[in-house]
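Lab notebook, bench 4. The sequencing result for the construct came back, and we need a structural model before the next group meeting so we can plan mutations. Quick request posted to the team channel:

Model the 3D structure of this chain.
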Amino acid sequence: MQIYNTLSRMKETFRPLHEGMAGMYVCGPTVYGDPHLGHARPAITFDILFRYLRHLGYKVRYVRNITDVGHLEHDADEGEDKIAKKARLEQLEPMEVVQHYLNSYHRAMDALNVLPPSIEPHASGHIIEQIEFIKRILESGYAYESEGSVYFDVPKYNRDHPYGKLSGRNIDELLATTRELDGQSEKHHPADFALWKKAAPEHIMHWPSPWSEGFPGWHLECSTMSSKYLGDTFDIHGGGMDLMFPHHECEIAQSVAHSGHDAVRYWMHNNMITIDGRKMGKSLGNFITLEQFFKGEHPLLSQPFSPMTIRFFILQAHYRGTLDFSDAALQASEKALARMTEGYRRLLDLKPTATEPALTEEIAALDARCTEAMDDDLNTPMVIATLFDALRVVNRIADGSQAASEADLEGLRRLFSTWLIDLLGIRPEVGGGAEGDASAMKPFEDAVDLLLEMRSKAKAEKDWATSDLIRDRLAEIGFDVKDTRNGFEWSLK
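Done. Here's the predicted structure in token form:
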């Protein structure tokens, strides 16, 4: 398996630190607002990686953190804590805010069929570990205490180690051109970042430490929790490209200062989702929440879009490419997904027309193409294209131009079950319902099938009036009905 390592800027063969095992850490949400489309992309990207590593036989420990303290409004260690600000505005306890939006995030992830991680640690639950981590960095000489806060000394670190190597920033130039501090700041240099912040009297989230009553810096939690659950060296660290600088750059510096070496062997970053060419995000105010997508309640949306349509839309683009949102693009994804799921349902209903296998090599070649695509840095668009090629085989069988044995049909069903359902994580839907819950749709499907069986019986008895009535009324309601050599097929328009 080849994955693109942001650090080396090339595709590399994945070789885990421990044979048969894989450790991956992914930056999760800061839970101070409802999840939006920008949250869905990293969650789905690394869900695909999680699924595929397990498919390859690895025992995977997947850690995805919850930021519930220490993330200030600005990366320059300024402003209020985002959770605390929300709590103050809504007159709630900070952990009420956290729990409310964490519940919302989990509901959205469940709807998108994102598997839960192995461990989901909270920053606020690891204050003791973060304090101990800071002590080690102070001992190494790459941090200093100032007025009750502790800061990482970026210029000193950069003299010994390349700060900026992940993002490719010219840190020497940045450090040389940054204005001198005017003495009003407790930092020694503007590039320095907080490991621990002394809490102002009005700050509502704070803990005791050797330096002050305060709270940890945002960057610290990921270094601390990844080392706790995956060790001082681990395989994969993932996140959005927007986190590369400063967040992930700071993580690298903290880990080297703490342990004397890099912690991460492969860095992976998904690209942004944009609207009109601009990044989608809370800070820019141009985001659409996932619930708004599911309900169609936003001026930019013409209709509701199901969770599986959203997932399919994201997977149609490679995770390292920019994905530009538009209502038209989502409608196109919805139609493509409907073709895929209708074809899969058609496959499940097919009966063998031959006794000897005729498609063994063709099915094997399709499966090999899917494997080759996923081994090539999770190329999900190519997997989807291959599955559409497999649908052409299904259609040949359905229209009678291709004979197929039970072994052929079973091979095709296994192909779709493995790649579409298990690895791409697409739950087959009937139409574009927002829930995509197969068990809830079963009575609906059975009712339509019953009507069409009555129509088939009427046709057999030459009761054309009843046959036409059922077909026409279903068409008025919104169903497409097709007569096939095996009986009938239906779908929602």
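The chain has three domains: 2-275, 327-423, 438-492.
Will bring this to the meeting.
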